[in-house]
């Protein structure tokens, strides 16, 4: 997919954030360590800093520390990626070998720890005490969700409710925190703050379900194969729930003992039970609610409010379009009677 188009003020904001991040990397005192951090920072979409910048436009006062808050959130996100690569035994990250494949688990874990401490330091140094506490609460939720997620690996009895709780505390909590940070630093209205924070959460829920769909079987080049590692995404959970008595034993067998040669059969089962439309509907519901949250915000906002609204809408559009394209890939793979694992 084509990258999202940024306006000049958004690009300028990101350049400020990247400058601070590169200073953090420079201060590691090790050229090799700096190179590892830089290589894994490049290539990201920088969605969370832009969510902060755009959500701030719905308030009524400027904030001089916005780019510092955005830097802290991006460092926290990057730290989580280094840790996730170890926990999930990820092969690639941003179209290159994951750090743990290049440098080993120890380097990847310590890189994540370093970035996490830098993120916390920036929160404490540049945010109000209550916002810094919100940041620490978000980190706690993310860690708890990882523990909970690994508890459910290869567990066929996981419910949709339990799965949604995991992604709510993992991906959605960080998007919600980003949105909350932006609006809290520029607004005083509790209603506005609540609506914008809810936007972040709903966007995060949609984003993670769509990401899981892509990584479920490695349908896109450079994506993971989550099912091979026992991670049951929403489409798999829906299929386990909807499969009838005749097909359920085979579904369970494929899920528990997944091999690439089972892909075509599994996609066929998903199509027969309308799993792809169900998954798309769930994602679309979160995206629609996210935009409804934003459109419900009252007041004129700051200079770039309309531009910010359009950009946040384009993120939602990006997630929707990405979902449609991934589903098309699955269906095309089935119609061709062939399936190439990335």
Tell me the structural class: mainly alpha
How many individual helices? 14
Query: Tell me about the biggest sheet?
Result: none
Distance between the termini: 17 Å
The Rg value, from CA coordinates, equals 20 Å
Q: On the 0-100 scale, what is the average pLDDT?
A: 91
- What is the CATH topology assignment of the largest domain? Farnesyl Diphosphate Synthase
What spatial form do the alpha-carbon principal axes imply?
globular
SS strand fraction: under 5%
How many E strands? 0
- Please name the fourth-level CATH homologous superfamily of the largest domain: Farnesyl Diphosphate Synthase
| Poorly predicted segments | 338-342
CATH architecture of the largest domain: Orthogonal Bundle
Q: Can you give the helix content as a percent range?
A: over 70%
H-E string:
HHHHHHHHHHHHHH
Number of domains: 2
CATH hierarchy class name of the largest domain: Mainly Alpha
